[in-house]
Design brief:
Layout (H helix, E strand, L loop, with lengths): L4 H16 L6 H8 L3 H13 L3 E4 L5 E4 L8 H9 L22 H18 L3 H4 L3 H18 L6
Helix pairs in contact: 1-3, 1-4, 2-3, 4-5
Length: 157
């Protein structure tokens, strides 16, 4: 199983928002910390905002923050939002299946079980879970953020 970069960015965005709660996170911080493209981060933040995962504020002093409690944001739901249907093989989607072996193929059954297990793990994980080791995560990103602040003339935190 492999998720798209878009899903990865979305999950990182939610994680950083949880780490910084209740403060706003600037898009520039996300770009600097994770070395991501600003247009991609903007797109992800806008999408998560329109779906009610983030509260966004534009302009000077703007940024984003979680719009829901981190315990209520299920990672599996976010992945379904950002990925759409996760069909490991075409026969898992009855609308697009062209395989004549559907219903008798043990491979398709195994692929369905693998896909279900993958999503089952993500369905038992929340944003609170992926931000639970807050101190370790913040310590890891502190040098990246300090470098960003020094470049724009702000004192390091």
């Amino acid at each position: 199983m492999k998720l798209t970069r878009y899903s990865n960015y979305a999950l990182r965005t939610l994680q950083l928002a949880a780490l910084r709660a209740p403060d706003l996170v600037r898009i520039e911080e996300m770009v600097q910390i994770h070395a991501l493209s600003k247009p991609h981060v903007r797109k992800v933040v806008h999408h998560l905002g329109s779906e009610g995962y983030l509260f966004t504020r534009r302009g000077r002093g703007g940024g984003f923050q979680l719009a829901r409690a981190p315990e209520s944001i299920v990672i599996g739901d976010v992945v379904r939002l950002t990925e759409g249907p996760i069909d490991v093989v075409e026969c898992l989607n009855p609308k697009t299946n062209t395989c004549p072996l559907i219903g008798v193929c043990k491979l398709s059954l195994a692929m369905q079980q693998a896909s279900d297990a993958f999503m089952g793990v993500l369905d038992n994980l929340t944003v609170a879970d992926i931000a639970a080791n807050k101190a370790q995560l913040l310590n890891r990103i502190a040098p990246l953020q300090s470098r960003d602040q020094l470049e724009i003339g702000e004192p390091p935190v």
